[in-house]
Structures are given as structure tokens and as C-alpha cells.
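Progress note, sequence design subtask.
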């Protein structure tokens, strides 16, 4: 039995927020109710952050497989840069 206080999984909430239909309904509701410029601004900011996150993820995927990092070589090079000034 599901309690009345049960909440949906966070993944479903995020997925519904990213759904263009849900966003459209949210905006339509805001326009019909009381246009809140602050709320609209926050939605636009959220959309911009999601777009930037998607772009960064895609850039990571497109960059190919990770390469091994040689910490000792990096450390030596960095020490040389610091000594030179």
C-alpha cells in the first residue's frame, strides 16, 4: 500500500521538468495566473543551465576515451615552471 506522503523518485521529477510539454504547461499556467517575471526568469535560467550541462556532457562524450595521466611528469614540469618564475 502506498502512503499518502509517498513521493515520486527524483529521477521522474527531473525527467518531467525537462519535458518540453511539461515546461509549456508550466509557462501557460504562469501566463494565465499572474505573470511573475521572477518565476519566468528562473525558468529561463534553469533552461540555460540544462542546455549548458547537456553541451558539456556532449563535449565530454565527443572528446573520446580518457587517457592515462602521468602525475610525476606533470609535477616535475610544474616544479620547473615555478623555479623559472
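Output:
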Amino acid at each position: 500500500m502506498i502512503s499518502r506522503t509517498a513521493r515520486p523518485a527524483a529521477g521522474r521529477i527531473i525527467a518531467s521538468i525537462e519535458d518540453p510539454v511539461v515546461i509549456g504547461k508550466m509557462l501557460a499556467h504562469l501566463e494565465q495566473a499572474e505573470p511573475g517575471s521572477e518565476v519566468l526568469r528562473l525558468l529561463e535560467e534553469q533552461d540555460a543551465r540544462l542546455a549548458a550541462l547537456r553541451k558539456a556532457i556532449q563535449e565530454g562524450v565527443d572528446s573520446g576515451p580518457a587517457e592515462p595521466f602521468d602525475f610525476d611528469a606533470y609535477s616535475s614540469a610544474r616544479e620547473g615552471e615555478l623555479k623559472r618564475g
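Residues 10-63 form one domain. Work on this subtask will continue into the next period as scheduled.
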